[in-house]
Amino acid sequence: MTSVREAAAPAKPMSWAMLSRALAVPLILALVCFLPAVIAAQPGTGVRDTAYWLQLVLTCYAGTRLATMILSTRRRLLQGVFWMFVYIAMGVAPFAQDVIGQTPTPLVGPRSDLVTAVALILVGCAAFDLGALLASRRPLRRRISVRSGIGPAVAHRVRLRLLVLLAFAASGYYILKLGGPAVFFTSRQEISASVAASGVGSGRSQVGSAFLKGFGTVPALLALLFHTRRLVTSRRARRSPSTVLVWVGLIGLNTIVNNPLSNARYWFLTVLVSLLFTAFPSSAAMYRSVLAAGVVGALVLFPYADRFRYDSSGYRPVESSSVFEPLATKDYDQTVMFANTITWVDTRGHTYGRQLVGSALFFVPRSVWSGKPEDTGVRVGQWMGMSMTNLSAPLWTELWVDFGAPGMAGAFALIGYVAARTDRRYARAVSREGPGPGSVLAVTVPLIAGYTFILLRGPLLQAAGKPAVAALCLLLVTSFRIRAGRRPH
Q1: Is 351 helix (H, G, I), strand (E, B) or coil?
Q2: Measured distance CA(446)–CA(36) in Å, rounded
């Protein structure tokens, strides 16, 4: 007979394994079957040719991989964000464009170039998966040598204070140079005008403005991420008034320079994703919520999130009769721009690394390097005769322009390998056996995960400035030495 105590005992919470099995079927059906079927049923003038069916295959493939990332027992930040971008920007959105018969940017070449573009995207995705699979076959090694005093990368406390001082000084200069805090709560158009009026740029060169924006925003974000990491993982830090006050000050600073009103949507997405993953490093629920909510947000909210790109006189609201129509007319031009780039390369030839060299040497002004390559998206846009050349050049395009299909496939295999290895090292860094509150990897990986959207969307020349500033900041604070008798933090 069951005792009263046993009968009154609370039920055990449902484990994630049981919950994931319950969610697996509806999630996969929603991403792989239901959403593509709903899009296919939309009215439109699109033709159901080879490009249409390849796009459907790509959408289902990316949906399956994204569902795998969400349901995985391990948090795979870089791989999860990669598949979320592919599913939305290279899968669902172009599929809606094929059905409706509209694209944000016109297709200037033959339809066969669009078929080639979708096929190459599939090749890149398969190569990424192959690289990740190869990485899973190799065990991780702990890079710790107690005898030599070398351990995992951690933030040096004194240098972290220097980073905080740099953040306040650089952001303060950025704020004063643009005319005060008020301009950061207007629009991106006003910010651009203020940067132009500040005189940091000259002629065609944007190096000065890139460094002004980079140092004005990145050190503040990195300092906030490191202090958030310390507060989340260290009881001692939470009991330190000075640490809490610095964190509050950094929140205020980032509210000014990294708010969604005066920054590009992709950059604010970087800020939000990196902060969430840093604040909840071990939360499987947060990881899965970000990936799942990201799909909904990208499809429903993102096309309308450019409200503050222009001032009230320049803003034109989106008018559509279908939730999928903005996907066909705004923002998601990655696939069609890849097709246009294929047409462009057919007339000009591959650049054999020149575009990537230009991106890597972004800091060299054009007054010194007169033949410095322009953004890939800008070059293709000018060739197309577009008046607005701020067009995307997804990573597939950048790699294919320089190295052709074999080089692109090899590069994506390497990217998949590095992403998978980094995800595994990140999982170790945020575990109890990790290097503690000062772990550099536990802060860097969330930042890279957020910035992955920008790197994948391209062009790389536009995206290169802020990672370079972040790398300098990380070099400033990183230490590999183990203090004798103390856990590094």
Answers
A1: coil
A2: 30
